[in-house]
Amino acid sequence: MEKRYWNEYQKEIADDHYFYERSCIRQTFFPGSEAAFLRILRDELGKDICDNPHQHTCTGIGYHSDVVPFETTMTVVARLFALMTEAGYENYVPSCVTSFGVFSEMVEKWEHDPELLAKTRQWLWEATKREFNIPKNIAHPSDIIYKNRFDLQPKMKYQLVNRFTGKPLRVVEHIGCHYAKIFPDKGIGKAEFPYVLAGMIEAWGGEVIDYPERRHCCGFGFRQYLVRENRGYSVSNTKKKFESMEPYEPDFILTNCPGCAMFMDKWQYTIAEMENKTFDHEGYGIPVLTYEELTGLLLGYDPWTLGLQLHQVQSEPLLEKIGIAYNPGEKYKGISGRLLPRPASPECLKQI
Amino acid sequence: MNNLKSYLEQDSRANDALKACMNCGMCTAVCPAAEFYDYDPRRICDTVQRGNEDEIEALLKEDTIWYCGQCMSCKTRCPRGNVPGELIQVLRRASQELGYFTESEKGEQQKRLMNSIGSNVLEIGYCVYPDRVFPEEHPEQGPIWEWYIENIEEIAPKLGANYHGKGPGALRDIPEEDLEEVRKIFEVTGGMKFRETVQNT
Predict the structure, then answer these.
(1) Was domain A150-330 assigned CATH 3.40.50.11810?
(2) Which is nearest to A286 in space by CA: A252, A311, A320?
(3) Hey, is the C-beta of A305 within 8 angstroms of any chain B C-beta?
(4) Residue B72 distance to chain A (closest CA, Å)
(5) pTM for the whole thing?
(6) Hey, is the C-beta of A187 within 8 angstroms of any chain B C-beta?
(7) What's phi and psi for A51, nearest 5 deg?
(8) Given CA atoms A296, A297, A302, A308 in this order, what sign does their dihedral have?
């Protein structure tokens, strides 16, 4: 019998009353995903989640790009925890995987070094006259969707099944490095057998692809992407993953980190334009979805409200496979109902 | 600078990052940067552990320490519980504080990062924001990103965002009183002094 290693590594995920922290990257590239997550929690699951207007960046990208010192990031994190404390919450839910790693790191440092915690409290008080409690629970939003995957399933209009063949869709799941590689105990299934996305895929009818470079980084690399001349590092690492998954013919890629979702989408365009190479048969590329987009799609949310029109790799072939109803005429309409000019087409990557 | 080893140890992360390396090379085997660059985290741990002042100073002035992508895959695999990626953070900080970073091409890039990501944090409260991901600087983002930026006022609200709005929501403007508190945190904790050091070196 196959051994289910992930089952040995579970984490506690709070059941309700969450304080949500927005992600710089997810807001920038996938604003519809954050809206969908709040809608799913409130409307589908009846949970209480606070979206505080006074929040700000955790500085995580600056921290890992080495432009924000450790003590500064630590105290910025403390201010965010103060906002949570003042709002009467104990369960912290950061949208970004980098943030999830940063918050987990700071809490661990405080647990091992009470003097550092005392100093942080002092710095925060000096700067803002605020005080904070350490959250009782820190969970990534993908943890919460995972925890409720079987409650969501009966509400879903669609399953991860190819309607033309009747077979489960074959899915590559990509977990952001900072979800479990830094603190394996903080991730469902730990770092070697993370199950947070695989659990959703299996619960909703799909089949998870195991491929050699499954745990390889998406290639972001912070300064390796943010500085233009370093981007060869980023695209090379992503290409390595695509080459490794290509023989398994995935129907789509699912991610829990907003940066990974963006890179795996945009680098497919870049590689196609540079080398006239795509990693699917038809030349459209492999669609990449955030877990919020996937959950929303299966629940019957409109693809163009979820934001699939912002993906460079087109999603329509996947929508057709699942049988999701959509209106092509709405794709390029704005909030006013006006039809916007169509985006330019890439030279090599096929556009719908 | 004398006694660089002690200087590095002033960073409270240093002891967590490097406890006792046995040079097994597991970190290098799993490292994405080691596949792309001539980069060997095992050697960096060895150099710092050896404690030779000249070697550490040379390390702080080289491109090498800037090759790491901070994925932290090394942390998961090190059998001794070391964190080479965290040691890199300690070394990069020291290189900037001591002014050594400008002696390498990769290190010099920190000035640009400070003026992009570092400025974003202080000016708008985001590390990244659509208005500052300029299509001309990001050709890899493709034509859809260009289309989004050109039409963002029509598209972002359709996706539930509160673009440049007040109150909660994605892409809202962060209130000035909150930004002011973030800036005060930078002043109190040394973030502002660090920024000036990098900009003025």
Answers:
(1) yes
(2) A252
(3) yes
(4) 6
(5) 0.97
(6) no
(7) -115, 90
(8) positive
User: CATH number of B4-103: 1.10.357.10, 1.10.1060.10, 3.40.190.10, 2.60.40.2470?
Assistant: 1.10.1060.10
| A313, A285 contact by CB (below 8 A) | yes
Whether ipTM > 0.90 holds is yes
The rounded distance, in Å, linking the Cα atoms of A344 and B150 is: 12
> Which of B69, B133, B142 is the closest to A269 by Cβ?
B142
A161 by DSSP, 3-state: which?
A: strand
Whole-angstrom distance, CA of residue A89 vs CA of residue A132: 11
Q: How far is CA A75 from CA A82, A227, B174, B197, in A?
A: 10, 27, 18, 20
Which string of b and e fits A126-154 if b means at least 16 CB within 10 Å? ebbebebebbebbbbbbbbbbbbbeebee
pLDDT tens by residue, B101-117: 999 999 999 999 999 99
User: A87: burial class by Cβ within 10 Å (0-12, 13-18, 19+)?
Assistant: exposed
Distances (CA, A) of A156 to A37, A101, A135, A205, A352: 15, 31, 32, 11, 26
Residue A83 is encoded by which pair of tokens? 């906002």
B17 and B84 in contact (C-beta within 8 Å)?
yes
pLDDT tens for each residue of A168-222: 999 999 999 999 999 988 999 888 888 999 999 999 999 999 999 999 999 999 9
Which of A72, A115, A306 is most worth mutating to test chain B (most B CB atoms within 10 A of its CB)? A72
Rounded to the nearest 10°, the torsion over CA A274, A275, A281, A286 is -40
φ, ψ for residue A244, nearest 5 deg: -75, -35
Tens digits of pLDDT across chain B (201 residues): 779 999 999 999 999 999 999 999 999 999 999 999 999 999 999 999 999 999 999 999 999 999 999 999 999 999 999 999 999 999 999 999 999 999 999 999 999 999 999 999 999 999 999 999 999 999 999 999 999 999 999 999 999 999 999 999 999 999 999 999 999 999 999 999 999 999 999
Query: Which tens digits make up the pLDDT trace of A224-250?
Result: 999 999 999 999 999 999 999 999 999
Pick A15-139's CATH classification: 3.40.630.30, 1.20.1050.140, 3.20.20.70, 1.10.10.60: 1.20.1050.140
A291 touches chain B (CB under 8 A): no
Domain positions in chain A: 15-139, 150-330
Distance CA A76, CA A62 (A): 12
Cα B155 to Cα A202: distance, rounded to the nearest angstrom:
33
DSSP, collapsed to helix, strand or coil, labels residue A286 as coil
Cβ(A256)–Cβ(B69) under 8 Å?
no
